[in-house]
Amino acid sequence: MRIFAIPLFIFGLFIFGFSGESSGKSYKDLSPEKRKAFAADWLETGKAYYKSAKMNNAKSSFKNVIEIYPMGQSAEEARKLLKAYFKLDISYNPEKSFSDYVKSAENTADKSLRLSNYLMALEIKKDPAIIKKAAQLYLEMGKKEKSDELLNSGPGSITNTSTNTNQ
Questions:
Q1: What mean pLDDT is predicted for residues 21-38?
Q2: With contact defined as beta carbons under 8 Å apart, do 67 and 78 qualify?
Q3: Looking at the domain 2-86, which fold is it?
Q4: Using CB atoms within 10 A as the burial measure, which of 3, 30, 87, 88 is most buried?
Q5: Residue 26: pLDDT band by 50, 70, 90 thresholds?
Q6: More confident residue, 141 or 23
Q7: CA angle 65, 70, 75 (to 5 degrees)
Q8: CA neighbor of 74 nearest in space, from 95, 112, 49, 46
Q9: What is the pLDDT of residue 153?
Q10: Can you spell out the DSSP letters for 106-125?
């Protein structure tokens, strides 16, 4: 029973805030790293539900994994388990997911949520235009170091493209 309580407690903290009052937060506000860890927790919860013969809960947990972080290993395993256990085939289309994250980012005024969506899109594809948008949001939020880190990450970094012609 304890294994069920941990992810649900964590989820509740993000949904209702640490004080118990509704804060308007959800997993969608989380960084990609935290979403990835959260999805892994849901996968383990789904497996525990399945072992306990709580099939509806298992199925919902596996679907949560895919919703929270669709491109990760946990989501891949959740898709396999849904297909094996429930004959439910949920495919993953990286281009569609990328497009959905970008559209979600562009359709919200909340900077934190917009940034989270851009960062999730960047988990799928390192698009220079999205890197610039995410870096700009970091700047607007007073996080210059994060902005610089994003702009300087990886080969062909945004800030180095004008000075390095060998890329």
A1: 80
A2: no
A3: 1.25.40
A4: 30
A5: confident
A6: 141
A7: 50
A8: 46
A9: 84
A10: HT---HHHHHHHHHHHHHH-
Q: Which residues contact 104 (CB under 8 A, 6 or more apart)?
A: 113, 117
Tokens of 100: 């959905």
- Give the N- to C-terminal CA distance of the chain in Å, as an integer: 54
Do residues 64 and 29 lie in contact, with contact meaning Cβ atoms separated by under 8 Å?
Answer: no
**Domain regions of the chain by residue span:** 2-86, 94-160
pLDDT tens by residue, 102-150: 999 999 999 999 999 999 999 999 999 999 999 999 999 999 999 999 9
Cα separation values, 54 from 47, 76, 98, 140, Å: 10, 21, 33, 46
Pick 12 or 62 by higher pLDDT. 62
Token pair of 133 as six digits: 């948008």
Helix and strand totals (H; E) in the chain: 8, 0
Backbone angles phi, psi at 131, to 5 degrees: -60, -45
- Counting residues of the chain whose pLDDT is more than 70, the rounded percentage is 77
Half-sphere exposure of 79 (CA within 13 A, CB side): 16
